[in-house]
C-alpha cells in the first residue's frame, strides 16, 4: 500500500510541473508585462512614476531575465517561500488574497460533491432496480436535461425563478446583515439558504452522469449468480441489494472525486461569477480582465493542483477499497 | 441422348447456398457492408434520428440566416426597447365588422412610467401589422454574392416592426439576432471539432500505434490537460486576446482555445482502438506485405475507426458550443457586433434585466440547451451504432 502511494505521488510530480507551466504561460501571455501596464495606468492617473522604484521592481521580478529563469524564480518562490508574486491591482501580495477565496471555492465544491453523492446514490439504486419504470424514465429525462443545461444558464434561471416567485435576491453566500456578523446559528442557516442554489447548479451535471454510471454498474451486478442465490435463499430484497451489489457498484462514487472535482471547480468558477459568490471565480475574472496576471495565474495553478490532490485522494481510497488495484 | 437444356433466364448471381434468410432483403444480412449495417442499427434509434433532424434544421437555419431572419441583426429602434414578444394571429376584424383572414401581429401602445422612466407595452388590438411570407424587407447581401431584400417571414410593409421573440435593450429583433447567432455558435462547434479532430486523431494514433515512450509522453500531456479545470483555463487564454483584433481573428482564436482542450477524449478513444487493432490479422498482413507505418495507420487502421471517431466528435461538439457561449457570456469571448448565443446571453446577465425581459434569457438559453441535447442524443445513437458487429 505504501509503495502504491509513493508511486502515485511520484507520478504526480510531472503533472504538477505541467500545470505550473501552463499557469506560467498564461501569466506571460498578455503583451507587455505588469510594470508597463502599471506605468501606463499611473501616468494616466497623473501619478508620478519613480524610475528608481520601477527599476527596483524590474530587478525583483526579473523581467529582463530569460523566460526559463523567470519561471524558475516564480516556481521556487512559491515552493520555498509561499510567495505567489504581487497583485498590482490590489497592491498586496497575491498570497494574502487567494487563500480565503480558494477556501470558499473548496468548500462550495465539497458541498456540491456531497450533494452529488447524496442525490445520485438513491436515484441510481432505484433506477437500476426498477429499470424502465416510470420513475427510471423520469430520472433519465432529468439527467439528460441536467447534462445539457450549462451551469451559468441554470444559475440565471434559478436566480430569476427565486427572484420572481420567492421574492428573494440570491446573490452571494450571506445576506447583507450577516456578512460581518460573528458566527452564529442564524448565520449558518442564512448560509444554507444561499448555498443551495450554487450547490444545485454545480452538482446537477455530476449527479446526472453518476446516476448513469451507478445504474449501469448495478445492473451488471444484479444479474450475477450470487445475487440470485441470495434471493433464492429468501433474503429480503433490500438486504440482497444493499449488502453486496451496491457496495461493489460504489467504486465509481470514489473515483468520481477524481473526475467530478475538475468539473465542480470549473463549475464553481462560472456559477460564482453569475451569482457573485466570494469564491475564486469572480476575482479570477476580474484579475484577467485587468491583466493582474500573478493573481490570475496563481488561481489557475491552485485550481489545477486542487484537482490533482482530488485525484490522488480518490486513487488512494480506491486502492484501500479494492485490493485488485492495490496489487497491480 | 438427352437434349442439352439452355437456361434462358437471367444469370444466377446469388451464392449456391444462400446465407440469406428467406423473406429478408439482401442488405439486412451479412451481405451488407459495414456502413449499411451501421445505418440500420442507427435507424432503429428514433430519438437519435429526431435529434439528427433537429441538428440538420439548426445548420439549415445557420446557412440561410439572412433569408430566414425577418430583420437585420443590428437594426435598432430606440422606441421599441425591451418590447415583449408578439403573438401571430390569423384573423382580423375588418372596418365593416366582418372577420377576414389576415395574418398579423398586434402592435403596441406604450406608456413611459414617469417615476422609473421605464417603458411599458400594452398590446393594442386596433393596431394590426399584417405579415406574410416572402416579403421585401431590409436589404442584405446573401453569402456575400448578391443583393436582395427577400425575407421568409416579415411585416408586409418594410417599415413596420415585428418582434416574435421580443426585442433587446436597443430595440433589436431578438428572433433575427438568434438566427444570425445560430450561424456563429453552430459553426464554432464545427470548426472547433475539426481542430480537435486533427489533434486528437494524430496524437491518439501515434500514442496507440507506437506505445512505449511516445505513448508515455502523450498520456502525461493528456493527463495534465484533463486535470485542469477547463473554465478557468479558457478564461485565462481568452483574456489574453488583444482587444485590437478583428472579430474574425477573435472568432478563430476562440475556436482554437475551445478545441485545445476538447481533443483529449478523442485521443484516448483512438489510442484504445489502436491498441486493440494493432495486433489484428489484417494489420499484420499489411505489414508483412511491406506497408510502411504511415500507410498502416492511415490506410488500414484509421478507416476502420471512422464510425467511432464520428460518434466521439459528435459528443465533443456540445462542449465546444457551451464553451463559446460561456466565454462570450462572461465578456471575454466573442464581442458585439458579432452575434452568437453567448453574446445574446450577455444581455441577460443580471436579475433585474431578466425580470424586465425574460425572453432575453429564455430564447437564447433554449437554443443552447436544444443544440446540446440534440448533439448528445445523436452522439449516443451513433456510438451505439458504431460497432455493428457487437451483439
Automatic annotation (TrEMBL), chain A:
InterPro entries reported in the protein's UniProt record: BPD_transp_1_N (IPR045621), MetI-like (IPR000515), MetI-like_sf (IPR035906)
Lipid bilayer topology: Multi-pass membrane protein
Compartments, as annotated in UniProt: Cell membrane
Superkingdom, taxonomy of origin: Bacteria
Transmembrane helix keyword on record: yes
Entry similarity comment: Belongs to the binding-protein-dependent transport system permease family.
Descriptive protein name: ABC transporter permease
Automatic annotation (TrEMBL), chain B:
Location in the cell: Cell membrane
Name of the molecule in the record: ABC transporter permease
Keywords recorded for this protein, A-Z: Membrane, Transmembrane, Transmembrane helix, Transport
Gene3D superfamilies assigned: MetI-like (1.10.3720.10)
Domain of life the protein comes from: Bacteria
UniProt keyword annotation of DNA-binding present: no
UniProt xrefs under SUPFAM superfamilies: MetI-like
Annotated InterPro entries: MetI-like, MetI-like_sf, OppC_N
Residue stretches making up the ABC transmembrane type-1 domain: 182-379
Keyword Membrane among UniProt keywords: yes
Transmembrane domains' residue ranges: 47-69, 184-210, 222-243, 249-267, 309-334, 354-378
Record's bilayer topology term: Multi-pass membrane protein
Entry-linked Pfam families: BPD_transp_1 (PF00528), OppC_N (PF12911)
PROSITE patterns named among the record's database cross-references: ABC_TM1 (PS50928)
Family as reported in the entry's similarity comment: Belongs to the binding-protein-dependent transport system permease family.
Amino acid at each position: 500500500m505504501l509503495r502504491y502511494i509513493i508511486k502515485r505521488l511520484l507520478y504526480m510530480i510531472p503533472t504538477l510541473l505541467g500545470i505550473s507551466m501552463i499557469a506560467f504561460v498564461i501569466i506571460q501571455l498578455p503583451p507587455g508585462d505588469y510594470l508597463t501596464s502599471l506605468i501606463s495606468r499611473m501616468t494616466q492617473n497623473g501619478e508620478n512614476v519613480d524610475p528608481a522604484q520601477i527599476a527596483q521592481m524590474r530587478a525583483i521580478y526579473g523581467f529582463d531575465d530569460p523566460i526559463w529563469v523567470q519561471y524558475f524564480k516564480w516556481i521556487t518562490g512559491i515552493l520555498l517561500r509561499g510567495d505567489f508574486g504581487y497583485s498590482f491591482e490590489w497592491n498586496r501580495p497575491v498570497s494574502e488574497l487567494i487563500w480565503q477565496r480558494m477556501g470558499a471555492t473548496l468548500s462550495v465544491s465539497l458541498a456540491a460533491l456531497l450533494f452529488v453523492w447524496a442525490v445520485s446514490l438513491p436515484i441510481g439504486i432505484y433506477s437500476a432496480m426498477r429499470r424502465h419504470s416510470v420513475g427510471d424514465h423520469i430520472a433519465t429525462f432529468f439527467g439528460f436535461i441536467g447534462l445539457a443545461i450549462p451551469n451559468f444558464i441554470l444559475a440565471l434561471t434559478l436566480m430569476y425563478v427565486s427572484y420572481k416567485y420567492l421574492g428573494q435576491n440570491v446573490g452571494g453566500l450571506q445576506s447583507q446583515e450577516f456578512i460581518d456578523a460573528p458566527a452564529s446559528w442564524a448565520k449558518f442557516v442564512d448560509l444554507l439558504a444561499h448555498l443551495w442554489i450554487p450547490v444545485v447548479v454545480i452538482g446537477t451535471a455530476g449527479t446526472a452522469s453518476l446516476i448513469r454510471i451507478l445504474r449501469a454498474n448495478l445492473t451488471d451486478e444484479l444479474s450475477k449468480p450470487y445475487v440470485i442465490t441470495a434471493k433464492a435463499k429468501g433474503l429480503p430484497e433490500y438486504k440482497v441489494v444493499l449488502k453486496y451489489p451496491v457496495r461493489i457498484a460504489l467504486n465509481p462514487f470514489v473515483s468520481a472525486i477524481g473526475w467530478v472535482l475538475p468539473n465542480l471547480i470549473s463549475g464553481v468558477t462560472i456559477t460564482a461569477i453569475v451569482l457573485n459568490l466570494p469564491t475564486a471565480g469572480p476575482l479570477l475574472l476580474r484579475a484577467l480582465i485587468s491583466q493582474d496576471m500573478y493573481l490570475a495565474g496563481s488561481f489557475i495553478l491552485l485550481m489545477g493542483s486542487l484537482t490533482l490532490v482530488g485525484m490522488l485522494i480518490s486513487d488512494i481510497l480506491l486502492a484501500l477499497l479494492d485490493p485488485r488495484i492495490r496489487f497491480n | 441422348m438427352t437434349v442439352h437444356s439452355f437456361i434462358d433466364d437471367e444469370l444466377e448471381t446469388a451464392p449456391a447456398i444462400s446465407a440469406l434468410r428467406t423473406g429478408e432483403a439482401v442488405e439486412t444480412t451479412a451481405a451488407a457492408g459495414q456502413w449499411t449495417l451501421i445505418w440500420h442499427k442507427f435507424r432503429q434509434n428514433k430519438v437519435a434520428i429526431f435529434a439528427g433532424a433537429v441538428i440538420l434544421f439548426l445548420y439549415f437555419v445557420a446557412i440561410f440566416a439572412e433569408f430566414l431572419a425577418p430583420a437585420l441583426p443590428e437594426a435598432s429602434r430606440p422606441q421599441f426597447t425591451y418590447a415583449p414578444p408578439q403573438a401571430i394571429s390569423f384573423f382580423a376584424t375588418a372596418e365593416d365588422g366582418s372577420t377576414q383572414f389576415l395574418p398579423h401581429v398586434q402592435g403596441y401602445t406604450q406608456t413611459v412610467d414617469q417615476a422609473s422612466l421605464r417603458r411599458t407595452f400594452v398590446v393594442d388590438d386596433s393596431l394590426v401589422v399584417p405579415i406574410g411570407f416572402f416579403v421585401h424587407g431590409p436589404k442584405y447581401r446573401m453569402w456575400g454574392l448578391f443583393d436582395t431584400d427577400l425575407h421568409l417571414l416579415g411585416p408586409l410593409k418594410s417599415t413596420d416592426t415585428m418582434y416574435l421573440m421580443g426585442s433587446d435593450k436597443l430595440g433589436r429583433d431578438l428572433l433575427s439576432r438568434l438566427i444570425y447567432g445560430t450561424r456563429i455558435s453552430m459553426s464554432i462547434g464545427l470548426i472547433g471539432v475539426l481542430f480537435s479532430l486533427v489533434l486528437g486523431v494524430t496524437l491518439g494514433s501515434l500514442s496507440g500505434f507506437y506505445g512505449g515512450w511516445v505513448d508515455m509522453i502523450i498520456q502525461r500531456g493528456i493527463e495534465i490537460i484533463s486535470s485542469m479545470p477547463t473554465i478557468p483555463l479558457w478564461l485565462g487564454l481568452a483574456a489574453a486576446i488583444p482587444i485590437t483584433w478583428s472579430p474574425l481573428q477573435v472568432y478563430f482564436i476562440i475556436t482554437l482555445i475551445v478545441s485545445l482542450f476538447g481533443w483529449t477524449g478523442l485521443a484516448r478513444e483512438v489510442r484504445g482502438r489502436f491498441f486493440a487493432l494493432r495486433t489484428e490479422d489484417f494489420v499484420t498482413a499489411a505489414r508483412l506485405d511491406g506497408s510502411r507505418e504511415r500507410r498502416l495507420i492511415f490506410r488500414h487502421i484509421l478507416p476502420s475507426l471512422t464510425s467511432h471517431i464520428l460518434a466521439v466528435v459528435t459528443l465533443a461538439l456540445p462542449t465546444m458550443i457551451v464553451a463559446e457561449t460561456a466565454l462570450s457570456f462572461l465578456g471575454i469571448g466573442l464581442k458585439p457586433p458579432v452575434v452568437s448565443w453567448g453574446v445574446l446571453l450577455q444581455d441577460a446577465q443580471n436579475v433585474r434585466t431578466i425580470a424586465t425581459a425574460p425572453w432575453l434569457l429564455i430564447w437564447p438559453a433554449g437554443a443552447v440547451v436544444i443544440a446540446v441535447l440534440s448533439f448528445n442524443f445523436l452522439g449516443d445513437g451513433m456510438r451505439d451504432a458504431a460497432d455493428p458487429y457487437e451483439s
